[in-house]
Amino acid sequence: MAIILLVYKYLLAGFVIGFVFALNHVGLPVISGDFPVDRLTLQTYTTRNVNGAFGRWFWGVLAYQTEHHLWPGISWHKLPIAAKITRDFCQQHGIIYNEATPRECFIDSVASLKRFRLQRQCSSR
User: Fold this and answer.
1) Whole-model pTM above 0.85?
2) Alpha helix (H) ranges present in 26-101?
3) Where is the Fatty acid desaturase domain (predicted)?
């Protein structure tokens, strides 16, 4: 019984982490190594923070994905402060800062996967 619970726990945890990761990244631009970009722009273009009460609860500290990538060593309880500073800085300098509700993340990710599927189908013909 203990082994079954352990396997279930890891399967569930893997699904949740995969779901969180996908919604934080899928649907956002992919930047190749040939595209010269600074670290701040790279992270704000290719990651997305999740807002709203449910998003902050379900995603936990990964709701602050952009700041997690910019400062991986920052203490988790300082991420909301870092997010406000980052958001304000990006707004002042005209840098895209991706933030969305869980619903918006899901809709954008599904639409992106559908576009990818259609591109693959067209290219394989």
Assistant:
1) no
2) 39-46, 53-59, 65-70, 79-93
3) 5-99
Q: To 10 degrees, what angle do helices 102-123 and 2-25 make?
A: 80
The two three-digit tokens of residue 103, written as one number: 């619903």
Helices 39-46 & 79-93, crossing angle to 10 degrees? 100
Greatest alpha-carbon span in the chain: 56
| Helix or strand (DSSP H, E) at 100 | strand 99-100
Q: Range of 17's domain?
A: 2-123
Please check whether residue 79 is in contact with residue 61, taking contact to mean a CB–CB distance below 8 angstroms.
yes
Measured over the CA atoms of residue 55, residue 59, residue 60 and residue 66, the dihedral's sign is negative
Number of domains in the chain: 1
**Residues 6 or more apart in contact with residue 70 via CB below 8 angstroms:** 39, 40, 43, 82, 86
